[in-house]
Amino acid sequence: MALLEEPIKKPLDLKNYIGGEFVRSRGEMQDIVNPATGKVIARVPMSTREEVEQAVEAAKEAYPEWRSTPPLARARCLFRLKELLEEHFEELSRIQTMEHGKTIDESRGETRRGIENVEVATGIPTLMMGYNLEDIAAGIDEYVIRQPLGVFGIISPFNFPLMIPLWFAPYAVATGNCVIIKPSPETPISQTKLAELTEEAGFPPGVWNVVHGGVEAAGAMLDHPDIKGICFVGSTPVAKVIYRRCGETGKRVIAQAGAKNFALIMPDADLDNTVAACLTSCFGNAGQRCLAIANVVVVGEGLSGAEFDAFYRRFTDAFAAAASRIRIGYGLDDTIQMGPVRDAHKKEKIVGYIEKGIAEGAKLRLDGRKPVIVGDYPDTCFLGPTIFEDVTPDMTIGREEIFGPVATVMKAGGLKEAIGMIHSNPYGNAASIFTRNGKWAREFQYWTECGNIGINVGIVAPMAFFPFSGMKESFFGTLHGQGMEAIRFFTESKVVIQRWF
Amino acid sequence: MAEGELTASAIMCLAEEVEENSAAFYEKLASRFAKGREEFLGFAEESRKNKTFLVRTYQETVSDALETAFSCKGLDLAAVEVSLPENAGLQEALEIAVSLERRVSDLYFQIAEQTQSLLATIPRAFSRVAKKRAARIEVLQSMMGDA
pTM value? Predict the structure, then answer.
């Protein structure tokens, strides 16, 4: 077993980063526990409303000078940040594994995805350009200027502690705004480390702020009249509250919410690659990913009853066999393929769903409740992959977001029926089809009401230069994070019509 | 996970170790034998560059969508080990070096083959370094003739 060195040697006392200073919060401190080892690795403050207000004041103060800083100079800060992120790539990745539990390969992937957003935002001198047209009437020209708005808030979830704030923050500051990031109180260390790097990169005090905390801090951000917009990623019930409250206070909002993603396995799918993709999607990040496939639908389009049964059996046998071989343990051991879930409460909730699945009559094909753990670690947060068969979309485990390493397998007679199953679910984050048939793939892409569509792709994670989409109960807002849509979200289009006498 | 079965992260750790051990081995040859010193130091320097190149390629392309259960199977991990006996002469040292290069290039070609489905850049990087390592064999063999 090769355990990589832990970058956190003793518990950290996390501070807020306000106006370019790391300041101790007056809020109550909570322990952050490494879910694999059970050891306390940090203490995070639950910041107060007043501390959020201080951050807003610092951001407001920094804003006029920052917005008038030439875009190229702002981009240079981002270039320096990118370099620092590369320099600290391994440290940042290991911190994510320690605070979240994911494997080191998954953490490195997350770090890379975060860096890619910084890279895209460095193109701001081009991305932020407006447009114009001469002679809209005799001697009159018209043009659009993209201007920043001021201060934005970013409220992020526990499952991608480094990457998710980077879907938004680089674009916000590149366009001349200032940000206040409230990391998840469950995984706040990555953002503290990132704040240190932004300081080193030379962002002026107040441009990039981090306020730790929970509901009180988030509420203060939602209520504050000087915060112009909120970016949120989390559960659907909270996203709805955020969306409503942002509407009440006139804020722009991106609220990315829950998911229950389907994958359709067509009879002509390449079985080996499909099983590998499903494994990654269902059990990667211990299933704590809004793009994870939760419901795998084996589709019998064009098959006789016997052929369909044989195809279903072939897929489920291969899927269950491969899942049962996944090595579970501490993510800093690089022989490990799946880490723990974030905490004991989440494990308990996931186990509750497994029990509900059994009670509702689904067949428990692979039981992950008592996993074999590699290494001497407490089993507090560990679960193995769980697979259910004979699941229908109306069962609790087929309908609700479990957010853990639990996959259900369903059956559909044809493509149309399978798409109907997707539509019967309230969520619309992602859906995938596995097939060699272009017509089926096009039909699927055309009709499926989900924001992110995969064709022979299990995790439909949009790259930094594309928007991270979402529909139905999975997204509340208009513009999305990442790429050009983020640029539009963080800027106002000012129209100028001019004539010279 | 069976012996010789490695995750992507473990593969990169292995490659780092292989290149670091190789560099140290050639530095030792350079310090012990005047003949071929330049070539040995060149190989050591190249190994350190290989290490940087492989790690950078992995870090620049690793994705959060990396296959969870991905692993390379049946790898011959003996490629990591290389040692030079205290009393080895140049001829013996060159034979050890040739054997090392064969094992390393075979290992890298094997990794390149097995990572085809993963991320395009990673198999390409391993193939490139495997070719460089294989090319050393000819140089070492020509030195054997002169030794």
Answer: 0.94
